[in-house]
Design goal:
- With 240 residues, the protein is mainly α.
- It has two domains: 5-144, no CATH class; 175-240, Arc Repressor Mutant, subunit A.
- Helices cover 70% and strands 0% of the residues.
- The protein has twelve helices and no strands.
- It has helices at residues 5-16, 19-31, 41-49, 55-69, 76-86, 88-100, 106-123, 132-157, 177-190, 194-202, 207-214, 218-238.
- The chain is globular.
Amino acid sequence: MSIAWHEIRDHLMFSYSTLGFQHTFDELRRSSEPLAHFADPAAVLDTLHVGCRAPDDKNRLLVALVAAAQSGGAASDCVLTLMLLALWPGLDAVRRRSIWRRIGTGDEVASEILARASEAIRSLDLQRVNWIAATILRNIERDLIRTRQREDRHQSLRCEADPNEIPADGEVLSGDAIPELLHRDLVRIIGTDADLVIRVAIDGFSQAEVASEMGLSEAATRKRYQRATRRLRVVLQEFC
C-alpha cells in the first residue's frame, strides 16, 4: 500500500518525538559541539527552519548532523530522521516541481525522493561539499530529471517510426541545447545574475533556497533578483 507524502512526514515527526529518540539525541549532543547547545531535536529544527542564525552557522549544524548520520553508530538512524525533517521544506519543493514536470505519480515521486535523500545523506562527501542542504536537494532533483529523461529516450527508441524520415521545416534544437542558449542570452543581458534568475524563475526554487545555495543573504538575493528582472522587463519592452 502506498504511503502519502504527508503520512511520511507524520511518521518522521512521531519518531523524533519519542523518549528513546530524546535519549539518543542527548548522547549525541554530548559528543558533538555544534549540537551541545540544543536541549532537544525540536530546537534543532526550529533553528534550521525559522531561526535567525546566519547561513554559515546553519550549514555547520547540518555538517554535524550528516557526520553523525554517516557514523554507523546507534545514533545514525535517529540523525537520518532528523536530517530528513530538516530538509523537508526543500524536499517538498522538489516533490511539487517533479510532479509538475510529470516525472511520476505523487506516490512514485515521494518514494523516489525519500530513497534518494536517505542515500545522499549517507554518502555525502563532506570534504568536497560546501553547502549541505543546497547540494543534497540539487542532486536529488537533477537525478530525478535525468532518470526521467533516460526513460523517455528508451521509450522513443521503441517507436517504430524513423525520426530521419519525419520532415522538418528547419533546424530543430535538441532539449539539451535550449537551456544552454537561454543561459547564454541571459548572461548577455543581465550578466552574473543569470544563474539566479534561472534557478528562481525557471527551476522553481525559492529565493531563500537559492540564497543558501549561492552563499548569499536572503536580502542580497532578493535585491539582485529584482534588479535582474527589472532589466529583463526593460529589454523585453524594447522588442514590443
